[in-house]
Amino acid sequence: MCLAVIALAAHPDFDAVIAANRDEFHARPAAAAHWWRERLGARLLAGRDLEAGGTWLGVSERGRWAFVTNVREPGRHDPGAPSRGSLVPELLRDIREPADALATTLARGVAFNGFNVVAGDGPRAAFGSNRTPAILPLPAGIHGVSNAQLDTPWPKLARVKAGVARWIASREPDPRALWEVLDDRRTADDDELPATGLTLERERLLSAPFIVSDTYGTRCSTLIALGRDGNVHFAERSFDREGRISGEVEYRFHIAAAAGRAQPEALRG
Length: 269
Known about the structure:
By secondary structure, the chain is of the alpha+beta class. Helices cover 16% and strands 38% of the residues. The chain has a single domain, classed as Penicillin V Acylase, Chain A (4-Layer Sandwich).
């Protein structure tokens, strides 16, 4: 996951809305979002990395949601490090408070390349990273994470946050109106580009919220909306290397508390 905006207790209908784009090499195999279970515990609704077996973003049947983004660190990449995609299923299975779950994840974070993680239950959420020492509870409002720290104002992130804010202000009840926000393919002006150690050409390419190139680009866009009534709406679009929609799935379920567990209802995809 390379860009995610979270709206917590900001919309009258939703406890939380997550709008995200996953950027990855086109050659890396992945499965579209579906229900699956890893080991014991809750079922997970998420895409799946078919190379390492983890995921970048998902929600559990209990309503726990989580995602991971890479930290952009040219020259500091360890090819032998474990996949950061293993962190998200771990967080989705954890039934503790989000900050406590993140503390366990970050305690072993030294083994991984740079990452940011966010985990939440409805409107309660926390941010953590193996590149900063603190776990940050997220207050109500709009927050964003790309390949730097929380709310770092890169142009792509600022643009998507503004689009989510406009959607909230409109009181539009359908989160699928955010597809257009995530489909923004405009690159930033050179004087707005961050200096992360990449070439100018690469910084330009990666500055768009939605990236299109032959080898690396936006592979999928995902919307997760957790309603105040316990209903969850999950929608995902997949894209080919030319940025065309190559698949679409949609799921709806209800989080029903039963002895501390939730039961999925009315699943479809």
